[in-house]
Each structure stands twice: as C-alpha cells, then as structure tokens.
Amino acid sequence: EPKRKAAFGSIGRRIPYRILHVINQDGESLGHMHRAEALKLMDQHGLKLVLLRENAEPPVYRLMSGQQIHEEQLKRAEKKKASPKPGLYIKELSFSSAIAKNDLETKTKQIAQWIEKKHHVKVTIRQAK
After folding, report:
1. Separation CA 113–CA 115 (nearest Å)
2. Most buried residue, 34, 44, 79, 116, by CB count within 10 Å?
3. Ranges for the Translation initiation factor 3 N-terminal domain (predicted)?
4. Is the domain of 25 the same as that of 52?
5. pLDDT tens for each residue of 89-113
C-alpha cells in the first residue's frame, strides 16, 4: 500500500510501483518502463519523477524540473482556492436602517446561530427612505 500522497503526487525516488508509464518534461509519452530505468533517466536529465495519475494501469509519472513542479503546485492551489468548499454555506441577511429594535434583536440572534454553525454571514443594511 503506497503512502498517502502529498498535495502534488509523490515526487522523487520513492516509487512503490514496478512498471510505470513515463512522460517527458515536454509532455511526450516515453511508454512503459521499469522503475529502475525511470530512475536512471531521471538522474541523467537532472529531473524529478512526479506522480500524475495513480489510478491508471500502469501509474503515470512525469519527468519535471523543480520550476515546473513549483508552477504546477501554484496552479493547483489557485484552482483549489477558486472552487467552493463542500459544506460551506453563505447566509445573507438584508434589512433596512429603520428596523424596529425588536426585529433587530431577532435578526442578531439568527446571525449568532449561523456563526456558531460555522456559516459565513453576509449582512446588508439598506438606508430607509
């Protein structure tokens, strides 16, 4: 059982699979090869092997430079930041500046309950006429 992968696949010499599908740094397929051959190729070119697809048969690895790995990590972090998190709810509440004291207290209690449940709360106050 391979160890849990970090944010960006397994990088370097610890490869739990014997046969790999290797892609060079330009994106061209080098075909299936044994782990020892892939490591030899990695050392010759001064690159690192990065796991791209673990579920494929055989697993797909790509030869990358440190700069390429860094850029890919930045891209993935940006994509993850842009996608909404599962279970994250944004509650929105809107009321007038001429709200009655009683109504304001009720809405304040509701906001407090939402915050306790870890919801994001957006409050909009409209100016009364």
Report:
1. 5
2. 34
3. 11-78
4. yes
5. 788 888 888 889 999 999 999 999 9
